[in-house]
Design goal:
The chain contains 1 helix and no strands. With 55 residues, it is mainly α.
Length: 55
């Protein structure tokens, strides 16, 4: 059965992971996000009751 022979497929998988790990991943990690997170203080909203005309 040719599916049990890992010789060509293991080499292809290994080279693709090495390409991703050493070439593509550092280039992708250098991108800055378009919307960086900011430190916002948590403030509570001031709520007021409604004046219902039928009560």
């Amino acid at each position: 059965m040719p599916q049990l022979n890992p010789a060509p497929w293991f080499f292809i998988m290994l080279t693709s992971w090495l390409t991703f790990s050493f070439i593509l991943q550092p280039k992708i990690l250098q991108f800055t996000s378009t919307n960086p997170p900011s430190d916002k203080s948590l403030s509570t909203m001031k709520t007021s009751s409604w004046n219902w005309p039928w009560t």
